[in-house]
Amino acid sequence: MTDCKVCVDAGVCKMKTIITATTDEMGMVKLDIKSDCPDILKMSWRLESFSPYSEVEAEFYKSEVYKLAQETPIPHTACPVPSAMVKAIEVAGDLGLKRDVTIRFIDDDSEA
């Protein structure tokens, strides 16, 4: 299994989050979260180990990460941190590759 570390710069709020995903001998993924955001920290206190297969293939409303984001609650639906958590679980579980994800604002299609 591949352990990984992800840094999320959430944008306008300027709060950074570092997610470290490690896999145990049973293939379960544990997340360690360091964040400037109090809501993300509160969510992180409730995180348990994840089955990468179950989490990555879950429908959004059945994802344990997104359920915790709803229950915490994370007050900003556009927050990219829960998505980054799922991505880290995917990579640590050897279900995806380490590849950056980018959201850029553009004025014209030619900038894509």
Brief sketch in words of this structure:
29% of the residues lie in helices and 19% in strands.
Give the key terms:
112 residues, alpha+beta, Sufe protein. Chain: A, 3-stranded antiparallel sheet, 3 strands
Can you put this structure into words, describing what you see?
The protein is α+β, with helices and mostly antiparallel strands and 112 residues long. It has one domain: Alpha-Beta Complex (Sufe protein. Chain: A), CATH 3.90.1010.10. It has 4 helices and 3 strands. It has helices at 38-44, 52-57, 64-71, 81-92; strands spanning 4-9, 16-23, 29-35. Strands 1-2-3 form a 3-stranded antiparallel beta sheet. Strand 2 (16-23) and strand 3 (29-35) form a beta hairpin. The longest helix is centred in the C-terminal third of the chain and has 12 residues, at 81-92. The termini are far apart. The mean pLDDT is 96.
Topology pattern, helix = H, strand = E: EEEHHHH
Low-confidence stretches: none
Architecture (CATH level 2) name:
Alpha-Beta Complex
The fraction of residues in strands falls at 15-25%
Q: Give the beta-strand count.
A: 3
- Report the helical percentage: 25-40%
Q: Quickly count the domains.
A: 1
Secondary-structure class: alpha+beta
Give me the Rg, rounded.
14 Å
Largest sheet: 3 strands, antiparallel
CATH topology descriptor: Sufe protein. Chain: A
Write down the overall geometry: globular
Helix count, per DSSP?
Answer: 4
Mean pLDDT, as a whole number? 96
Provide the spatial order of strands within the biggest beta sheet: 1-2-3
Q: Between the first and last Cα atoms, what is the distance in angstroms?
A: 34 Å
